[in-house]
């Protein structure tokens, strides 16, 4: 029996990088208990970023090695696991340990560079068992999760304005939720008789909508307390593309400054840090420069020119199966400590 604690990777990296520059023996400090917290040991403490709370806590039973022993787990251990022993656990950043083949520092940096969203820590009564980074969590986002405006699409169903929740995955696709009008449009589209190979169709029963697949299985469509309609169905693997407001005066930039000094660059679409290429050319406008910043992981780009200013070109994330990959080619070496 062990617990898997899920921490936001980018918040964790902030604490780790701070500790690496501000501590003699840099480490992440895990305060375990019913509400686990993770923070770096840099001094002075990172005031701008509070300790990272575990967003999720999973309890797991090992079935890999020996189920007989697992069945025989003594109630003492189970009780300890269930109530989560209050204790402090040190995760050294620059050194290898019995747990990890490479330093946790490198695991965190690579995870962040490749667009992972989570740092997970497996822990049991005896102590740490494993640490790693993960792209997404297979579950519906909790009420506390942060949703972002996105274009939600499915190659057969169409494309809709809605929101997605980076870091989560539902039925193998991006989580998606919609405003009431868009939800009605989406349901109407499922009834379109000329749509080829419809994935689902909609029936109304007692004035409530249900999605019905070709096997006849029904999934209710209901609104959350906040008025958004999450639409999830095994047949609808949504792809989310964080939307660029092209019609507004202030397009949402793809990239944002990153790190305590703001010298880094984080891709707002996939979360990769310092994985962007930058190009600058004399502008076709005849004066000034055109610039292009492109994320090497997801391909999202941001361009500026002297006439139109900033233009954002976010790409779908996570990538569609079969879509060309942007991140598997040559990657710049990671910065050294
Ligand atoms: Zn990216």
Automatic annotation (TrEMBL):
Region Disordered, residue ranges: 306-337
Name of the protein: Uncharacterized protein
Upper classification of the organism: Bacteria, Bacillati, Actinomycetota, Actinomycetes, Micromonosporales
